[in-house]
Amino acid sequence: MIGAVAFGTASLIAAYANSAETLIAARAVLGIGGATLMPSTMALIRTMFTAPGQRAKAIGMWSGVMTAGIALGSVMSGVLVEYFWWGSVFLVNLPAMVLLLVLGPLLLPESKAASPGRFDWLSVPLSMAAVLPVVYGLKEIPSEGWNVRYVVSITVGLLFAVLFVHRQRTTASPMISPALFRGRGFGPSVALNLISSFAMMGSAYFTTQYLQSVLGKSALEAALWALLPSLPIGAAAPIATSLVQKGVDRAHVTAGFAIGAVGYALLAFTGTDSMALVLTACGVLAVGVVTVISQITDLAMSSAPLERAGSASSLMETGAEFGGALGMAALGSIGTAVYRHEIPDAAPDAARETLGGALAVADRFPGLATAAREAFTSGMQGAAIAGAVLLVGAAGLAALTLRGVEVRQEAPEPEPEKSLA
Question: In the predicted model, what is the mean pLDDT of residues 146-169?
Fold first, then answer.
C-alpha cells in the first residue's frame, strides 16, 4: 500500500514536472514504488498457492496479465503522446493505484515472515556501488573503446560486489539471505531470468527507434505495429503455462533460449525497409523469453522457503531490472559503436552521436538521413548478432545448471469437495 501511494504520487509529480531534475527525481521514486509492488504480487502467489499445479496456473496468469499490460501500455502511451502532452503518460497510473488502494485491503491477504530481522541499510549503498560502475563501464567500452577509466570503473564495481557478497554471508540480517540459494534451482533461475530480461530489453532499445526513426512511423503508429509481436505471445503463454504444470524441464528452458536466439538471428538480416521481418523477429524472441520466464519463475518460487517468498520474488524482480539495464547498456553500446563506424566522416557531430541527432539536422545535409538510417540498421544488426550469441550460450548454461533440478512438491493438489447428499 505504501508503494502504491509512492507510485501514484510520483506519477503526478512526473506528469507536471517543469525541469529535467524534477522528472528524474520523480522517476527515481517511481522505481522505488514499483520495486515494492511487483515482488509483492509474486510473493502473494507463492504464499496463496502452495500446490504446484495451482501455483503454475497463477504464475501463468500473472505473466500473461503483465505481458498484456506492457503491450497495452505502449499503445496507450502512443495515443496519449499523439493527442495530448507528454506528461499524460504518467497520469494513466493514477486510476490503477487508486483502485489498488481501495480494493487491496479488502482482497489481498497479509503475509509476513515470523522473524524478518532488521533491515540492512549498509547493503543498499554497497549494492549500488557494485552495480552502477559496472553498468557505466559496460555502456561506454563498446562505443568509446578500452579507456582506462572504464576498465577501472568495472573493476571498482566488482570489488564492491565482493564486499556486498561477503556482508550477505556474514551479517546477522542480510538483505539477500544465503538461505535462498540452498535450493538447487534458485541460483540458476535468478541468473537465467537476468539473461532473459537482458535479451528482451536489449532488442526493444532498437526496435522502437527503428519503427519511428528509420521507417518514419509516428508514436501512435509505432505503438500499434508493436502490438503484432504480442499475438504469438498470447498463443505461447497458455502453452508455457501447461508445460510448467507438468513440471519444470531444462529442455523447455533450453528450447526457449534457442527460440529467442532465432529471433535475434532474424533481426540480424533486417534492412532499412524490413518492418515485417523486424516484427517477426520480435515475436519469435518474445515467445522464447516467455517460455523461459514461465519455467524459471515457478522453479525459483518453489525452490525458495515459503517464509522467504518476498525476498525470493524481490531478488527475481531485481535481477530482471538489472538484466534489462545491462541489455540496453551493452547492446545499445554495441549498436552505437557500429553506428559511429558506419556514419560518414563528413557528418556533423550531432549526427555522429545518434540517429535522432542526424535526423534533426538532415535537412541541411543532403543524403545524411539515408546514411544515418543505414548506419543505425547496421548497428542493430551487430547488436542482434551479439544477442543471438548470448542466448545460444544461455541455452547451454540452462542445460548444464538445471540438470536434475525439479520443482519441489510442497503440498498436494486440493481435491474437490464431495457432496454429503
Answer: 88
Query: What's the burial of 399, exposed, middle or buried (CB within 10 Å: 0-12/13-18/19+)?
Result: middle
**Average pLDDT in the 124-137 region?**
87
Q: Residue 206 region, left (φ>0) first, then alpha (ψ -120 to 50), else beta?
A: alpha
Mean pLDDT of 259-287: 88
Q: How far apart are the first and last CA of the chain?
A: 44
Instruction: Tell me the three-class secondary structure of the chain, residue by residue.
Output: CHHHHHHHHHHHHHHCCCCHHHHHHHHHHHHHHHHHHHHHHHHHHHHHCCCHHHHHHHHHHHHHHHHHHHHHHHHHHHHHHHHCCCCHHHHCHHHHHHHHHHHHHHHCCCCCCCCCCCCCCCHHHHHHHHHHHHHHHHHHHHHHCCCHHHHHHHHHHHHHHHHHHHHHHHCCCCCCCHHHHHCCCHHHHHHHHHHHHHHHHHHHHHHHHHHHHHCCCCHHHHHHHCCCCHHHHHHHHHHHHHHHHCCCCHHHHHHHHHHHHHHHHHHCCCCCCCHHHHHHHHHHHHHHHHHHHHHHHHHHHHHCCHHHHHHHHHHHHHHHHHHHHHHHHHHHHHHHHHHHHHCCCCCCHHHHHCHHHHHHHHHHCCCHHHHHHHHHHHHHHHHHHHHHHHHHHHHHHHHHHCCCCCCCCCCCCCCCCCCCC
Confidence tier at 71 by pLDDT (50, 70, 90): low
- Per-residue model confidence (pLDDT) at position 412: 44
Q: Which residue has the cell 522502437?
A: 208
- The overall average pLDDT reported for the chain is 80
Give me the phi and psi of 408, to 5 degrees please: -70, 135
Q: How many beta carbons lie within 10 A of that of residue 381, not counting itself? A: 17
